[in-house]
Design goal:
The chain has 72 helices and no strands. The protein is mostly helical and 576 residues long.
Length: 576
């Protein structure tokens, strides 16, 4: 039969029945010339059995016309040896039906050369199943055309090993559809090289799911460009872990968009190194949420530059915890803007050390609210410099509690401006101790308001030096209470000028004790007004020496009451 076959014309070949074709032996098929193969009809090609197909030579297969090739059964396609399949031309490969492509075994596909594989149309590629794609070699995958790659199903791509996926070039990675990217497994994402990850377009990066993003390593994060990183959505940024954030470079951080920065969890913010925090610009610092600011560690806060610290809004400053405020450096505190300083809670200010509080400038001290001033501890108040005390406004001074006033040193009291001192309430003045009063300057005393002067305790009045007493004006002397006058020491009374002494009211004179009167100088006595002299008790007059009594003028003697005269001792009378 083989000799007969070789002698048949192409017309005769085309006239053979499908039954005859199906019964041809391998020897018969070996006798077919390429011109006879070309003469086969599609029906005859379809009649070729799976046993016969494996006996066709490479030359015979190459001679099959496209319609005849497409007529081969899927079973026959699956029976072709790798040598036979390789023998098909690229044009023939492109003519296979999608059913025939699907029928190709994984062994057949994995042995295709890249030229034949790329000869397949996008429709043929789309027909490949997951198993077929999963068995492509890394070389084959690396050579795939991007339009063919885009036809692969998400299931097919998910079936690729990490080595197969990493075999794709940057251009191939960038050509994947967003659906394909979103369909990758977390393991595949976790094993992408930084080059492949960077090759993703903004649209692809946005398509990455939060679960996929959670699988990205810190090294992969560090390898991303700022553009790719900023293409992530806020939900994706919110999914970043502290471990991943550790990979962010200072350049990446400096280029983060405000909405992405605000999306970071408080745990991530707390995990950032001081170098990463320092990389934030002033504008970025001002965009942090109050929750993020409150979450910062004391080390992070203490390492902020004064520029970055002042970039925080008043709302952000108000969010700072007591612990954070207490860890601000003196340099940071001294550079705070007054409106930010005023947002601190009293509790936060109370947590400052005396060195921290004293780092505040006079302008800063003067900017504190009255509530903040009133909230300072007595230790803080006691440690204020005289400059800071003097910087307090009248309203602030008036806001000091009696306990705070009691904590002031004599030096601090002495440094206060008269206006500030007079802003003290009578209750505050009543709190002043003798030690504190020793710090009052003669200028301060000379400017004390009458109600404040009257509020001084008897102990304080007795502690005043003769210079301080001399600083009181005549009007002030007249405002002392009877109890205060009665409390004056004999030395204080003896040093009063005649003007000040005469400024005392008759009620104040009446309050003078016998001991005080007995210590008046002859000059003071000779200058007493008669109305004042008449208020002195008989006991007080009896205590005067003959020199003191003789110092009285005739007018003064004539002004004495009959009771006062009757009360004089015989010795005093005898020496008049």
């Amino acid at each position: 039969m083989a000799s007969i076959i070789s002698a048949l014309s192409t017309t005769q070949i085309a006239g053979l029945s499908t039954t005859t074709i199906a019964n041809l032996t391998s020897a018969d098929w070996a006798a077919f010339g390429t011109h006879q193969i070309v003469a086969l009809t599609t029906a005859q090609a379809a009649a070729i059995s799976s046993t016969q197909i494996v006996n066709l030579t490479s030359t015979q297969l190459q001679a099959l016309e496209s319609q005849d090739l497409r007529a081969l059964t899927t079973a026959n396609i699956g029976r072709l040896t790798t040598a036979q399949l390789d023998a098909l031309t690229s044009d023939q490969m492109g003519q296979l039906t999608t059913g025939q492509v699907t029928a190709l075994t994984t062994a057949q596909l994995s042995n295709l050369n890249t030229a034949d594989l790329n000869a397949l149309s996008t429709t043929q590629f789309a027909a490949m199943n997951t198993s077929q794609i999963g068995n492509l070699t890394t070389d084959q995958l690396a050579a795939l055309e991007t339009n063919d790659l885009r036809t692969l199903s998400t299931a097919a791509l998910r079936g690729l090993s990490t080595d197969q996926l990493n075999a794709l070039s940057s251009d191939q990675m960038a050509a994947l559809t967003t659906a394909q990217v979103a369909g990758l497994t977390t393991a595949q994402i976790a094993n992408l090289t930084t080059t492949d990850l960077n090759a993703l377009t903004d649209a692809q990066t946005v398509a990455i799911t939060t679960a996929q993003l959670a699988a990205v390593s810190s090294a992969q994060v560090a390898g991303m460009t700022s553009a790719d990183l900023n293409s992530l959505g806020t939900a994706q940024f919110g999914a970043l872990s502290s471990v991943q954030a550790a990979g962010l470079t200072t350049t990446q951080i400096a280029n983060l968009e405000s909405q992405d920065l605000r999306a970071l969890t408080t745990a991530v913010v707390r995990s950032l190194t001081t170098a990463q925090i320092d990389a934030l610009s002033s504008d970025q610092m001002g965009q942090l949420t109050t929750g993020q600011v409150a979450a910062m560690t004391t080390e992070q806060v203490a390492n902020l530059t004064t520029t970055d610290l002042n970039a925080l809004s008043t709302a952000q400053f108000n969010a700072l915890t007591t612990l954070q405020v207490s860890n601000l450096t003196t340099h940071q505190l001294s550079a705070l803007e007054t409106n930010d300083l005023r947002t601190f809670s009293s509790t936060s200010l109370r947590a400052l050390s005396t060195d921290q509080l004293n780092a505040l400038s006079s302008d800063q001290m003067a900017a504190l609210t009255t509530g903040q001033v009133a909230g300072l501890t007595t230790a803080q108040v006691a440690a204020l410099t005289t400059t800071d005390v003097n910087a307090l406004t009248d309203a602030q001074t008036a806001a000091l509690t009696t306990a705070q006033v009691a904590a002031l040193s004599s030096a601090q009291v002495g440094s206060m401006a008269s206006a500030d001192l007079n802003s003290f309430s009578t209750a505050q003045f009543a709190t002043l101790s003798s030690v504190q009063a020793a710090g009052l300057t003669t200028t301060q005393i000379a400017n004390l308001d009458s109600q404040d002067l009257r509020a001084l305790s008897i102990a304080v009045v007795r502690s005043l030096t003769t210079a301080q007493i001399d600083a009181l004006t005549s009007d002030q002397m007249a405002q002392l209470s009877s109890a205060q006058v009665a409390a004056l020491t004999t030395e204080q009374v003896a040093n009063l000028s005649t003007t000040d002494l005469n400024a005392l009211t008759t009620g104040q004179f009446a309050a003078l004790t016998t001991l005080q009167v007995s210590n008046l100088t002859t000059l003071q006595l000779s200058s007493l007004e008669t109305s004042d002299l008449r208020t002195l008790s008989s006991t007080a007059l009896r205590a005067l020496t003959t020199d003191q009594l003789n110092a009285l003028t005739s007018d003064q003697m004539a002004a004495m009451t009959t009771a006062q005269v009757a009360g004089l001792t015989t010795a005093q009378i005898a020496n008049l």
